[in-house]
Amino acid sequence: MTLPSSPSLVLDLDAFDRNVTSMARTIVHEGGKRWRPHVKAIRAPDLVHQLIAAGANGVTCSTVGEAQVMVDAGIRDVLVASQVVHSSDLDRLAQLNRDASVMCAVDAPAHVLMLAAAAKRHGVRLPVLVEVEVGLERAGTEPGQEAVALARGVHAQPSLKFMGFVAWEGHVTRLPDPAARPEAIRSAVRLLTCSADLAREQGLPVQIVSCGGTATFLTTSFLSGVTEIQAGGGVFGDLRTRETLGVPMACALWLHATVLARPTPQRIVCDAGWKTLPHYPVAPRASGLSEVLHMAPAAEHLTLTLADGASQPAIGERIVFEPGYADAITFLHRTMHATREGGAPSTVQIPAAR
């Protein structure tokens, strides 16, 4: 395959399709949940539409800018799974709800007042989820009566529509023993679902109970009380998904770089610096090389030190890397070069969130 530039982000569509099918089968067909994949890693609307065709009902975003990209691409059911507080973002969120349903999360009465004011300014009714703290120790109100009280405050605002509850149980990925994670997931999600049950008992209309990322969907897809799962980025099958989290996906995303120099048999310099190939939170892996002792990234260059010298790859030839974490690489690129066995390469655009 001849690429128009280097370094280039390359998507194996055959592997991507298998991963999408596998995730949809688990979440939708076996687990019976709605699928609202998080698109902070996927980003490209053309790929998101493939997930919707496979069974997803909507998408999850991190920011209003990401939501804008999705709505502009014709996606009408969106969750911004974080708090929106900047005045321009509040106005944009309200405006998006003229043509789509774009929910956001709250965890304090101040958020409720901000959203209600923005909704009134623009003559819309904003859909809202209450975020519950289940152990991650990031955003989220305390589970139980505190979460229900906040939900009641949302429901009391005429310009807001209370939709339910949301949480992210991502702290379980920090557990060193993978065997301990399923029970930790169940315990965390129980705080979310019990809050939803308590709200229903007190007469609140809970439609959505949302959680479950790539790290946890193999468990959360089968938990009672959960209505939708947000797993998304795992469709790329990066190293973190496969090896750190133990989720059986195929590697679908690659970074192709070019050898710029070989000052010694053990030292290779290529054009995959940290501007195009991140090393945090999981380092990439060079494919097809002998043992790599060290990788030293700079802005535009990556220096690899090999255990043993070899004549290949030579200057001008290609090195292919498996990304460590898809969330950390796709936003660095504006295009992916999509390939399929037996087919001609195509280009997938990755719009910048605006």
TrEMBL record:
It comes from Variovorax robiniae. This is Alanine racemase. GO terms for molecular function: alanine racemase activity. Residues 252-340 form the D-serine dehydratase-like domain. InterPro entries: Ala_racemase_N (IPR001608), D-amino_acid_metab_enzyme (IPR051466), D-ser_dehydrat-like_dom (IPR026956), D-ser_dehydrat-like_sf (IPR042208), PLP-binding_barrel (IPR029066). It holds the Pfam family D-ser_dehydrat. Keywords: Isomerase, Lyase. The lineage of its organism: Bacteria, Pseudomonadati, Pseudomonadota, Betaproteobacteria, Burkholderiales. It comes from the Bacteria. Belongs to the DSD1 family. Its EC number is 5.1.1.1.
